[in-house]
């Protein structure tokens, strides 16, 4: 499934290598990538001009991903953003905690590029209000 249009994706991570890989992967697919290094910067950027999707590291300095998600969900302008947790904490309980906290999905680090692109495409299609068309 491919989104109907290129998306604006906010990547929030303090790890430069993760940011570089995601930015390269997503721009290659035609998306515009915005980058924030911590939750406070992400909140400011998303409030100013909400992206189509947020890829949010949970473990960051200043404002962590948990708090950033809570604040984004509390504001009318950003409450319906598609927000995906990214974390090296990949136990089932961690994933359930993320979904219960209001995150839309969970990507484990290190991430597999193919399944990550699939997941992002599905979430973007949903966020953009598109349904997958049945095969002819």
What's the arrangement of secondary structure elements?
Layout: E1 8-12, H1 16-28, E2 32-36, H2 39-48, E3 53-57, H3 65-74, E4 82-87, H4 92-100, E5 105-108, H5 113-127
Parallel strand pairs: 1-2, 1-3, 3-4, 4-5
Helix pairs in contact: 2-3
Describe it:
- The protein is α/β, with parallel strands linked by helices and 136 residues long.
- The chain has one domain (8-127): Rossmann fold (3-Layer(aba) Sandwich).
- It has five helices and five strands, in the order βαβαβαβαβα.
- Strands 2-1-3-4-5 form a five-stranded parallel beta sheet, sandwiched between helices.
- Helix 3 links the parallel strand 3 and strand 4.
- Mean pLDDT is 85; it is low at 130-136.
Looking at this protein, list some descriptive labels:
136 residues; alpha/beta; Rossmann fold; five-stranded parallel sheet; 5 helices; 5 strands; globular; disordered C terminus
Number of helices: 5
Low-pLDDT windows of residues: 130-136
| Structural Rg | 14 Å
Mean pLDDT comes to 85
Distance between the termini: 15 Å
- Arrangement of strands in the largest sheet: 2-1-3-4-5
Short account of what is shown:
The chain is α/β, with parallel strands linked by helices and 136 residues long.
């Amino acid at each position: 499934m491919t989104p109907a249009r290129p998306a604006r994706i906010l990547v929030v991570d303090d790890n430069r290598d993760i940011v570089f890989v995601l930015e390269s992967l997503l721009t290659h697919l035609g998306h515009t990538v915005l980058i924030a290094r911590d939750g406070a910067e992400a909140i400011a950027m998303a409030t100013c001009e909400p992206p189509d999707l947020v890829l949010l590291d949970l473990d960051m300095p200043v404002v962590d991903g948990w708090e950033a998600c809570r604040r984004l969900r509390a504001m009318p302008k950003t409450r319906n953003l598609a927000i995906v947790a990214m974390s090296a904490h990949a136990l089932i309980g961690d994933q359930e905690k993320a979904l219960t906290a209001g995150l839309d999905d969970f990507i484990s680090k290190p991430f597999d590029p193919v399944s990550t692109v699939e997941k992002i495409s599905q979430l973007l299609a949903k966020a953009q209000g598109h349904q997958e068309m049945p095969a002819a």
